[in-house]
Specification:
Elements (H helix, E strand, L loop, with lengths): L1 H11 L5 H24 L8 H13 L16 H7 L15 H8 L5 H17 L2 H11 L4 H8 L3 H19 L12
């Protein structure tokens, strides 16, 4: 029955993307197996056919029911919740530009909630855009945790200049956030 269940599952799930369909077919096969085991336990193995098992399992999959998962309409990671409430989830650690390493650092902070992470990503990105290009590259590199001496070698300046830039960047960030600026003035205020 397994090859027929796989074929039928692929047919019922044909509208899914290729990547999603492969996982969905495996989920349908698992669900069909669970249904088959239930039929055998009840002594009804003679009514177990590949077509109905595959159709039932595909319908369960499309409704958000998964094998071994509870159905919680309040859990945002639950497929049922996403379907019923029209919620979509996106990874915060995904970004397109490979130089945006600072975004990964923000996401890795386990002390911040999702709202704080999202706000910081937006504010920090806008702040970076307000900086001159070379200074922005220095700030992005410093945000990844690189040592002052390493950043100085990367950008062809002295370590003391990078330290000055670090203080100036901190002051510029405070001004951008509307916070009290430390005693020395900022070049971008």
């Amino acid at each position: 029955m397994l090859p027929r269940i796989r074929r039928q599952a692929a047919y019922y799930l044909r509208r899914l993307s290729k990547k999603d369909r492969a996982d969905a077919v495996q989920e349908v096969v698992s669900s069909a197996f669970v249904s088959y085991v239930r039929l055998v336990e009840r002594g009804k193995s003679d009514v177990a056919y590949a077509g109905p098992l595959a159709r039932y399992a595909a319908c369960q999959y499309l409704r958000g029911r998964r094998v071994g998962s509870s159905m919680n309409v309040s859990d945002l990671t639950s497929n049922l919740c996403r379907q019923k409430n029209g919620v979509s989830l996106e990874q915060l650690d995904h970004f397109d530009n490979p130089t945006d390493e600072w975004q990964q650092i923000v996401v890795e902070d386990r002390h911040s909630g999702p709202a704080e992470v999202a706000g910081t990503r937006i504010d920090f990105g806008d702040w970076l855009e307000s900086l001159p290009e070379r200074t922005r590259h220095v700030a992005e590199t410093l945000a990844t945790g690189e040592a002052t001496s390493h950043v100085a070698r990367m950008f062809g300046c002295s370590a003391s200049r990078v330290s000055q830039l670090r203080r100036e960047l901190h002051q510029a960030w405070c001004v951008f956030q509307g916070e009290v600026v430390p005693a020395t003035s900022s070049a971008w205020a």
